[in-house]
Amino acid sequence: HTLAVALTEALRDGQIQIAVQPMVDLVNGQVHALEALARWHHPELGEVPPEDFFAAAERSGQVVELSRRVLDQALAAARQWQEAGQQVRVAINLAPGWLADPSLPGQIRSALARHGLSADVLSLEVAESDVIDEPEMLLALTRLHEMGARLSVDDFGTGYSSLTFVSRLPVDQIKIHQSFVQQLRADGRARAVVQSIIDLGRNLGLEVVAEGVIDAYTRIELKRMGCRFGQGYYFDAPMPVQELSWPTGRRP
Ligand code: G
Ligand code: G
Ligand code: MN
Ligand code: NA
């Protein structure tokens, strides 16, 4: 409850800002896309974890307002990069309570228009568990894809319905959950899971992004296994938009 009250103030006072984290092309080291992640620095509480304030926002009915702020900042950043000559996509995470909002496609369409951007600049990350068998949500995502937005399955492999999801939706990208990626060296089973997801993505013609890349070993192995994209602290931690060195240099 108190977090919900604090969140109302935070939205009013602009305490919530996005951080961005690159997805890196493992073949050429170039930044492929940037994921926007919400950050709340509260004057007394300090950094509030996004899991906590999104949960509070879902309960208090503020998740649409919060998500729209993130979208607006992400599109402002994308517009800025475009003006600097960088064609790079920006990814946002779709919270369940926003996905359930029937006006979501319209909100995204008008936000794009406001920023003078076309929908193909935007990637929408959805955790498979958010969507299972909700016809309205599947329809909203299909509509957004028809507009030109990319669809990405976040935390791939951790839900019940990974395969249903990729077979029912016009998905463009899958992101392998970091729990598998980080066990690559130590655990032969995790390695087999990662290889299977990479192969599945390739067979379906999807972009495959490995999350949680934390060292050179993992980066090299992923590329060897046929994974095209990686994201993680080895390349960059999420950072404030103004800290992104531009034009982006090659990553290791
Ligand atoms: O950003 P990490 O730094 O700590 O984020 C933790 C969790 O919070 C992740 O599951 C991430 O997807 C989620 N998260 C962060 N920012 C957003 C956001 O803008 N929208 C939604 N829905 N989830 C977010
Ligand atoms: O949206 P998603 O649930 O995928 O959110 C990604 C989460 O992973 C965010 O909390 C982000 O800060 C975090 N993250 C990004 N790179 C790394 C990494 O290399 N290691 C770990 N442990 N977390 C990471
Ligand atoms: Mn994500
Ligand atoms: Na994820």
TrEMBL record:
Q: Tell me which residues make up the EAL domain.
A: 1-252
Q: What is this protein called?
A: EAL domain-containing protein
Species of origin = Kineosporia babensis
First and last residue shown, out of the full length, are 547 to 798 of 837
